[in-house]
Write a structure and sequence with these properties.
Elements lengths: L1 H6 L7 E4 L12 H9 L5 E2 L5 H19 L22 E7 L6 H11 L1 E6 L7 H12 L4 E6 L2 H11 L3 E5 L5 E4 L5 H14 L7 E5 L5 H9 L4 E4 L14 H9 L3 H4 E4 L1 H4 L10 E6 L2 H7 L4 H12 L34 H18 L3
Parallel strand pairs: 1-9, 2-3, 3-4, 4-5, 5-6, 6-8, 8-9
Antiparallel strand pairs: 7-11, 10-11
Length: about 375
């Protein structure tokens, strides 16, 4: 795990990251959240959808300004090589950015990475696994000190990606994760160690660090992931209840805070994407949301066109479909959340969430005696 703190010198162990959460109305993970996570010793990520040259570039500029104002940028170099005599000219921005190759244009992403040099470039949801090699080469050419992370959801995908593009980190996403993931998968408790074993057995790529994602919301989950062989964790659902997250409506957070028993009250389905019209995600993906009226209608046999019309009408209301306007907890709009949502009980600053998860894991490690 010390390799991560060498590569990302502002971080503390165990490593905590926020997921680069996107959203239909714009990313949930913007510069305030990413900066707060980085300042707390984690790696903060900015989410993207498709407006890379506009929205993403603006968020990276905002992150740079916020970090500069607080003295966190420029950071220490990520290695000892300098391309010129100015030590700061080649410094990476201590922020990560997530790209969706199935939606974003590679040329736009290249331009933004070249201009901003984020510490991490994270890829997820390519239409074909082979596409990651193309994206990885392009990013390493324009920003050699930016590290490449690739998110996978199966052992086979991990082995193929490791062999094709040798990412610096594989984000191993379990089926408990909120939002989008492989439609078929396993929880991190079996997936993370099997991926680690497979990388050794099928090519000796274990020098690639593993970061676990899916169902992790506190120090207990962090400790478990590290025991399974992960070098750090990514949390998404927990940061939906951070002060800095950008949400489409306040009711979204109310639903997150009010949902319990996440294994029963969240569900994976394609209907959450089909509500928006044509499902633009590759066939192997679906998404996990809190159970909504739209999902219940489809499950009971109502046609998607009718359900979509009901959603569009509800979206026009004051609560934008995240409630029924009459105090009902869950409406027709999608509320992305993982099975760990039942452990999310209060809103806190993102930095406090990071520190509590890290210290909680350390406390568990320190008191375990066998």
């Amino acid at each position: 795990m010390s390799l991560l703190t060498t590569t990302y010198p502002w971080t503390s162990l165990p490593l905590i990251c926020n997921a680069p959460m996107g959203g239909y109305s714009g990313p949930f993970a913007r510069s305030p959240l990413a900066v707060a996570v980085t300042q707390a010793g984690g790696i903060g990520f900015i989410g993207t959808v498709a407006d890379i040259k506009g929205e993403t570039a603006q968020e990276l500029t905002k992150a740079r300004d916020l970090l500069s104002a607080s003295g966190h940028y420029p950071p220490n170099q990520t290695d000892n090589d300098n391309d010129n005599d100015n030590d700061n000219a080649d410094a990476v921005l201590p922020i990560g950015v997530g790209f969706l190759p199935c939606l974003a244009a590679l040329e736009d992403c290249i331009e933004v990475v070249r201009a901003h040099r984020p510490a991490v470039v994270w890829f997820f949801a390519a239409r074909e696994l082979g596409d990651y090699a193309v994206w990885t080469r392009a990013m390493r050419e324009v920003s050699p000190k930016s590290r490449v992370w690739v998110q996978v959801g199966s052992v086979a995908a991990a082995v193929e990606v490791a062999g094709a593009c040798e990412p610096d980190v594989l984000v191993v996403q379990g089926i408990d994760a909120g939002g989008h993931a492989f439609e078929k998968g396993a929880g991190v408790i079996s997936l993370v160690p099997e991926v680690g074993d497979a990388l050794v057995e099928r090519g000796g790529k274990r020098e690639i660090a593993l970061v676990a994602a899916g169902g992790i919301v506190d120090g207990r989950g962090v400790a478990a992931a590290c025991a399974l062989g992960a070098s750090g964790v990514v949390m998404g659902t927990r940061f939906l209840a951070s002060e800095e997250v950008s949400l489409p409506h306040r009711r979204f957070r109310d639903v997150v805070l009010g949902t319990r028993d996440g294994g029963q009250n969240t569900v994976r389905a394609k209907v959450f994407d089909e509500l928006m019209g044509v499902n633009v995600w590759p066939e192997v993906y679906d998404g996990r949301s809190v159970v909504t009226e739209s999902y219940v209608d489809v499950k009971s046999g109502k046609g998607i066109e009718d359900v979509r019309a009901l959603f569009k009408e509800a979206e026009k209301g004051e609560e934008m479909g995240f409630g029924d306007g009459k105090g009902k907890a869950v409406g027709r709009a999608t509320v992305w959340a993982g099975t760990g949502v039942g452990l999310v009980n209060e809103v806190k600053p993102a930095g406090e969430i990071v520190r509590e998860a890290r210290e909680g894991a350390r406390a568990i490690f320190s008191r375990q005696k066998f």
